[in-house]
Amino acid sequence: MINQFRSLNPVNLIFLVVIAIILRTGVLLRLPDSSSFSLLESYTGLLINIPEDLFTPFSSVFYATVVVLIQAILLNRIVNNYNLLGKPSFMPALLYVTATALLEPFIVLNPVLIANFLVLWMIEKFMSIYRREKVLSVLFDLGMIVAAGTLIYFPFIAMLPLLWISLIIFRPFNWREWVAGLTGFITICFFVMTVYYLNGSLNDFFKTVPLVKAFHPGFHVNPYDYIVLIPVLLILVSSAFTIWHKFYRSNVHVRKAYFILLFLLLFSILSFSLSIEYEIYHFLLAIPALAIFMSHFFLNATKRWFYESVYLLLAAFIIYFQFV
Questions:
Q1: Which of 39, 170, 231, 252 minimizes the number of CB atoms within 10 Å of its CB?
Q2: How many domains would you assign to the chain?
Q3: What is the domain extent for residue 111?
């Protein structure tokens, strides 16, 4: 299976759909009786009002799967366009579809899954900074993207420092570029506040936005529910060795790209502390970067029996723990 996705073959799109369905079989066969969730933050309700009971349990899984497939193709295009893995393939798409099925909360429609469209857009923007002479417009767009993501899911605001980290990694210092991202972010905030002001409810806006919040006190984890992550950790450790082995033989842009992806992964994970109520689907924010890192191992591993077995083990764990 892995060997099939190591090439950029259009037929892989069909296999991708089939794998996405198979990896979600357990959830599809054990759908809950009802489904109620919010796709936007409460302070966005004045702009867009989406009923919490709009989707049935089946439609929630169905649309989530469609969204995942679209995002997988977009991620695959970005990785191949910027040659982040050294050769074109469908591996990032396969690993994205697989990783978004790791835990049951990932499989249903949720705000973080929608916000991942913006994460992919940010990755594409970050990758383009190195090739541009002028990046003021790119940083302004990135600031607006972060603000838009915050309207969907508040912890997305943790992506804002990535704008300046990307400038440190890719560019010499230029204060205008550092201000441009913040200006883009403030532009969206100003627009939202203006709408609230014109509706005479500006005070409600400040009451609903969690502008200041203490670090999340913690959460309870049932280790049995997360045994499925063991193959992921094995793949990540193997990927780290593979990336390190080839790191200094890669061109400068690719090396810097991996640094920004590493920071994206860290910020995505740590930003759970900004959640008012902790939800496990928060960690979907880390999946785009995670899929790229995991792809590096599967594309560069030489022993077919090993990398094929590792992927089959991962898929088996995902399906098994959906039924138990």
A1: 252
A2: 1
A3: 2-323
